[in-house]
């Protein structure tokens, strides 16, 4: 099939005069309004005292190009989508604008502080680094490297991640990023099945597709700056099917929407497999040549009939059969795009295995418009062996994500470095708060004084990504250069600088560390052949350069992975049967009720008859945007309840309602809506007790001891509700 992506990009090149129209259309698709922007923007471009800086949004992995207008006072006055960026084409969502407002708020941490008798006192960076280095040495010498852990998050940029990894290799301490609270299961299964832990296709490639199935994915709200690709694909005739427990902004754009019973998506996948195998309508040549484990798959799904799936999912049997046949009709041109509503559940492994297997046996791999979409972008590699192997310090214990709570509680973990806000973003928030409060020494490198920073012994001011230059990738697998809008406020420093200073104080070999983002990228270009042709100058000039790109003269095009049908798996094929390191057969597509649901916890079902979940909204990202007054006006915390469910519990719109799971309870204002399943109640996942919202985090309701292929459970858990 011809790849029409280049043609679409060319056709859609927007002029500055028209890009705001597009931005407004995108945000309108997400149910938001941008008013007055056009007039203000036109003015900014002509004002003599305003400066324009090219930036890239570093929030949701969308990778939207930005234009940042610096006002006469040196602060960010406006943020717009970059009309010349080939992938967001001037469209953005409210989040970067909100962040530009939040970084000047009173919640910003501007200088290092030390806690003395429960109160923070200002100290210098020198003093802070002296104290931290001394503590590090003390715990390393006396308790070993398993006594120290570090969290990072989206606060850390590319240079920070590299510096943190180098630091980790020189000390052997354990580090945790956003993997267990976002995508570990997805990455693990993609890796074992296809060989690379990322999407098989860039997002813009959806314009080549004929049919797209989105499950538990409200992309119109979570990545509004890139959602126009799905809308464009629809305009070109692609059929969009959305399956969710809520009628979302994405569902409003769909050709077909199915409200599914919570946590039962895997049953739909199993039944679709059953139909295409039973009716012999899969791609036999592709399966014979490139797929390993088909017989086991056929056996696993043979009794999973559409009738059985209909009973579990609530989706009519006929619809399941028709969907399966339609995907088979468009074999070689179909796509699957799961969202966090699938990935963060505790039956996600079986569900992802089922849908990924469906894509594989329909030959939806290695072709334009066919494959699996994800915010996990293809990797551009890294500089290998910065620390020579003989100097790499082995961790004395490999802490698993779910073990660190107990490790802190039992005093085995004595020192914690946080960058990010695990007290809000990790599950069992109260337990995390108590555990962090109990460790002997806690350093928080933070932009805002959040729930986690409040507990620290030392608080360090972190630079925001608006204030740090650096490379940024996105869902379209291009590298873009983000120019710092201005110097970090106050005494804020980037994560890269923090680890540089700490390494220097620790007496480490400083040839392993680089100080600036420019030095970080120069070393990357020199030592990582995948990006040898992507210099800073080139990124600035061309806006977005695809990788791999091995020379300055190379002009790589956007294309799916696996077009050569070579898979970096042990067999060289797509391994739909998961094999362990001894090549023993382990998992194949399966369905099980969500572990914390009435189906699997029958003894608790009468006490917890509903399911609780969280749903992302366009105005928030992780816990950062809650420090923006604009974001707070757009979104207040609520509990979405179907009116029929509310009536059962005597709840009226606006009533304070307690939502309680076997692990905790929080109170929220009821928001009655017909747009949600009667079996589910849902809230936004972002808010903290110490934030201006003063809201107990939704993660209070989830346990910390679940391990789903490296992920926690953070969606779908049985609950009950009652009026507060
Ligand atoms: S869609 Fe994502 S990358 Fe684009 S502006 Fe919004 S938060 Fe930033």
Automatic annotation (TrEMBL):
InterPro entries: Asp_de-COase-like_dom_sf, MoPterin_dinucl-bd_dom, Mopterin_OxRdtase, Mopterin_OxRdtase_4Fe-4S_dom, Prok_Mopterin_Oxidored, TAT_signal, TAT_signal_bac_arc. GO terms for molecular function: iron-sulfur cluster binding; metal ion binding; molybdopterin cofactor binding; oxidoreductase activity. SUPFAM superfamilies: ADC-like (SSF50692), Formate dehydrogenase/DMSO reductase, domains 1-3 (SSF53706). The keyword Metal-binding applies. Residues 50-107 form the 4Fe-4S Mo/W bis-MGD-type domain. Gene3D superfamilies: 2.40.40.20, 3.40.50.740, ADC-like domains, Dimethylsulfoxide Reductase, domain 2, Formate dehydrogenase/DMSO reductase. Keywords: Iron, Iron-sulfur, Metal-binding, Oxidoreductase, Signal. It comes from the Bacteria. Belongs to the prokaryotic molybdopterin-containing oxidoreductase family. This is Dehydrogenase.
């Amino acid at each position: 099939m011809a790849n029409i992506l280049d043609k679409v990009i060319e056709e859609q090149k927007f002029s500055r005069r028209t890009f705001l129209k597009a931005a407004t259309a995108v945000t309108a698709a997400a149910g938001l309004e941008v008013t007055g922007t056009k007039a203000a923007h036109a003015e900014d471009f002509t004002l003599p005292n305003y400066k324009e800086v090219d930036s890239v949004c570093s929030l949701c992995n969308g990778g939207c190009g930005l234009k940042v207008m610096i006002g006469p006072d040196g602060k960010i006055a406006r943020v717009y989508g970059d009309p010349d960026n080939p992938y967001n084409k001037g469209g953005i969502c409210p989040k970067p604008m909100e962040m530009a407002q939040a970084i000047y708020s009173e919640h910003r941490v501007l200088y290092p502080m030390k806690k003395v008798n429960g109160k923070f006192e200002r100290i210098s960076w020198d003093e802070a680094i002296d104290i931290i280095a001394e503590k590090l040495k003390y715990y390393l010498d006396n308790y070993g490297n398993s006594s120290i852990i570090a969290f990072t998050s989206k606060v850390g940029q590319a240079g920070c991640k590299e510096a943190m990894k180098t630091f980790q290799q020189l000390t052997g301490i354990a580090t945790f990023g956003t993997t267990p609270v976002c995508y570990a299961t997805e990455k693990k299964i993609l890796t074992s099945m296809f060989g690379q832990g990322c999407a098989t296709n860039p997002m813009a490639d959806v314009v080549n597709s004929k049919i797209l199935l989105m499950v538990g994915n409200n992309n119109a709200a979570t990545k509004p700056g890139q959602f126009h690709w799905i809308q464009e694909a629809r305009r070109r005739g692609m059929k969009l099917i959305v399956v969710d427990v809520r009628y979302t902004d994405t569902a409003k754009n769909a050709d077909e929407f199915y409200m599914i019973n919570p946590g039962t998506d895997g049953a739909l996948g199993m039944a679709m497999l059953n139909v295409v195998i039973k009716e012999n309508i899969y791609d036999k040549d592709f399966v014979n040549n490139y797929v390993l484990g088909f017989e086991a798959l056929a056996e696993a799904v043979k009794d999973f009939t559409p009738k059985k799936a209909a009973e579990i999912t609530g989706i009519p049997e006929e619809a399941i059969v028709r969907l399966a046949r339609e995907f088979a009709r468009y074999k070689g041109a179909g796509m699957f795009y799961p969202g966090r509503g699938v990935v963060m559940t505790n039956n996600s492994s079986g569900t992802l295995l089922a849908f990924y297997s469906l894509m594989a046996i329909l030959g939806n791999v290695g072709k334009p418009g066919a494959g699996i979409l994800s915010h996990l972008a293809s990797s551009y590699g890294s500089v290998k062996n910065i620390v020579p192997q003989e100097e790499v310090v082995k961790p004395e214990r490999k802490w698993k994500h779910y073990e660190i709570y107990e490790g802190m509680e039992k005093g085995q973990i004595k020192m914690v470095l946080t960058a990010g806000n695990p007290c809000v973003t990790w599950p069992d928030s109260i337990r995390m708060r108590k555990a962090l409060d109990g460790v002997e020494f806690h350093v928080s490198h933070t932009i805002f004084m959040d729930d986690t920073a409040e507990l620290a012994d030392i608080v360090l001011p972190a630079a925001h990504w608006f204030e740090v230059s650096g490379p940024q990738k996105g869902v379209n697998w291009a590298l873009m250069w983000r120019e710092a809008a201005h110097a970090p406020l106050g005494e804020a420093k980037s994560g890269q600088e923090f680890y540089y200073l700490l390494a220097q104080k620790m007496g480490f070999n400083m040839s392993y560390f680089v100080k600036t983002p420019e030095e970080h990228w120069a070393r990357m270009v020199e030592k990582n052949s995948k990006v040898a042709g992507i210099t800073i100058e080139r990124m600035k000039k061309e806006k977005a350069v695809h990788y791999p790109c091995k020379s300055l003269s190379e002009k790589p095009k956007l294309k799916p992975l696996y077009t050569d049908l070579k898979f970096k798996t042990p067999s060289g094929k797509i391994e739909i049967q998961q094999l362990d390191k001894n090549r023993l057969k382990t998992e194949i597509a399966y369905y099980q009720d969500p572990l914390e649901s009435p189906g699997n916890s029958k003894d608790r079902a009468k006490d917890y008859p509903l399911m609780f979940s969280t749903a992302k909204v366009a105005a928030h990202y992780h816990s950062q945007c809650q420090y923006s007054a604009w974001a707070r006006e757009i979104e207040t915390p609520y509990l979405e309840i179907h009116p029929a469910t509310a009536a059962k519990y005597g709840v009226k719109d606006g009533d304070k309602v307690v939502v309680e799971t076997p692990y905790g309870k929080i109170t929220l204002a009821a928001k009655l809506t017909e747009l949600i399943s009667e079996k589910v109640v849902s809230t936004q996942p972002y808010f903290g007790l110490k934030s201006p919202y003063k809201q107990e985090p939704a993660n209070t309701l989830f346990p910390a001891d679940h391990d789903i292929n490296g992920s926690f459970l953070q969606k779908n858990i049985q609950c009950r509700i009652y009026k507060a």
